[in-house]
Structure formats: C-alpha cells, structure tokens
TrEMBL record:
Source organism (scientific name): Varroa destructor
Transmembrane annotation, as ranges: none
Name assigned to this protein: Complement component 1 Q subcomponent-binding protein, mitochondrial
One GO process term, biological-process aspect: cytosolic ribosome assembly
Gene3D superfamilies hit by this protein: Mitochondrial glycoprotein
Lineage: Eukaryota, Metazoa, Ecdysozoa, Arthropoda, Chelicerata
Family: Belongs to the MAM33 family.
PANTHER family (alphabetical): COMPLEMENT COMPONENT 1 (PTHR10826), COMPLEMENT COMPONENT 1 Q SUBCOMPONENT-BINDING PROTEIN, MITOCHONDRIAL (PTHR10826:SF1)
Length: 240
C-alpha cells in the first residue's frame, strides 16, 4: 500500500507542473497572443467615423454661430411647454382654455429663394419652421378643434389684409383626444361666411397674424436647437 507521504508528494509535483514551477522556481510563460478578431473588437472606430466626427464638430460650431436668439422667443399671451419635438401653448380666455399644439418635425423650408430662368437658385433663402398647428378651445366639457396651416401663397382680401395661415378643417368632440370617428369639415368645402367667422373667433382669442409670425420665430429657434442637439448626439456616438 502506498503511503500518504508518497501520495502527497505526487500531488505537490503535479501542482508545480500545472502552475509552471520547476525545482521550486517559477518558469516564464509566454504572453498569449491577441487574435485579430479581438484587436478589431477593441478598435472599432473607422476612418469614416473619424471624418464624420470631424465634420460634425465643424458643423455644430457653424450652426451655433447661426443662431439668432440666445433665449427662446415667446408668443405673447401664451405659456409654453415642450416635450421633444412637441410644443404646446396655453392661455385662458374668459371661461375657456385655449391650447395650441404643434410638432416641429419636418417643418423647415427655405424662404424667398430667388431663381434664374434656368431654374437654379441664385440666393439661399432663410430656413424657417412653419408647422401646422391645432387650436383647441375647451368650454363646458366640449372641445372645438381648428386645424390650421401656414398659407403657401398668402392672398389679400378686398381690404388688402393677408392671412398668414388658414383653417384646414374643424371638428368638435368630448373627452381627452379627438377620435377618428369624430366628424370633421374641410376648409375647402366650408361655407365662405362660416370660414370668415371662425377666423374671427380665432383672432378674438389671440390667434392672429401677429401670433402666426411669433410662432414662426419660436418654432424656427426651437427646431434649430433640437437640430444642434441631434448633431451633438451623433458626434458623441461615432466618437466612442
């Protein structure tokens, strides 16, 4: 029968061999080579990423310099709330709550771009945000919703007054949100006198041409800020 001492000695020598110890001295172990796939894992930034990051840095500086307002413009008489690309303007009028809701996504276009006969633009127009907006007038549990859009070609009436925006449609509903089942009337088929009276209704509640001009200023500034913020996020993403 093998003694415990012999067994223990054999186990000790096996452990020495396992951990690289020979005659009581630790042997050197060659460093393990990193495979090419592991190198690629630790260095993922490409030349294209670097070029994009450099371009974005320059673009962000240029866009910041192009900003017209240090502080967000306001629409007179309305309080403003924002959530991402959504903007909500609120005011009280007698016993009514007036809410103007809009989204600045996809609302920017060039303004007053002059062209040659060949169709080529000779001068870049100012980039302005002209969002569609919904005006909700809430009273006694009912809501009148007038959907409005900026006129592409403002036309003057017989008194020479130009409406900067127009009523696209209107509807009425109860509850929190307008449902697809709620009936609405298009401004294109609306009686002309009814249309004028609804425009007067909006004007009396502060939704006027002056309001529309201030809204363009606010929306343009807010959208531009979101654009710069998006460029910064993209730069940080590709720079990691």
């Amino acid at each position: 029968m093998m003694s415990r001492a012999v067994v223990s000695c054999g186990r000790f020598m096996a452990l020495q061999a396992r951990f690289g110890v020979v005659n009581g001295m630790a042997r050197s172990v060659a460093p393990r080579e990193i495979r090419p796939s592991m190198i690629a894992f630790y260095s993922t930034k490409t030349k294209g990423d670097q070029e994009l990051s450099s371009f974005l840095s320059d673009e962000i500086i240029a866009e910041r310099k192009a900003r017209k307002h240090d502080a967000m413009p306001k629409v007179e008489g309305f309080d403003m709330k924002t959530k991402g690309s959504e903007v909500t303007l609120v005011r009280k009028f007698n016993d009514e709550m007036i809410t103007v809701a809009l989204n600045v996504n996809h609302t920017v276009d060039a303004e007053d771009v002059s062209s040659t006969q060949s169709g080529e633009a000779t001068e870049s127009g100012e980039m302005l945000s002209k969002p569609n907006f919904d005006v909700t007038i809430e009273k006694a549990g009912q809501k009148l919703v007038l959907s409005c859009a900026y006129a592409s070609d403002p036309s003057a009436d017989q008194d020479g007054y130009e409406d900067l925006f127009q009523i696209v449609e209107f509807s009425m509903h109860t509850g929190e949100e307008l449902q697809d089942s709620d009936y609405s009337v298009s401004g294109d088929i609306m009686d002309g006198h009814l249309y004028d009276l609804l425009m007067n209704l909006l004007e009396e509640r502060g939704v006027t041409n002056e309001f529309a001009e201030q809204l363009i200023d606010l929306s343009t500034s807010y959208e531009h800020g979101l654009y710069i913020n998006l460029l910064e996020k993209l730069r940080d993403f590709v720079s990691k």
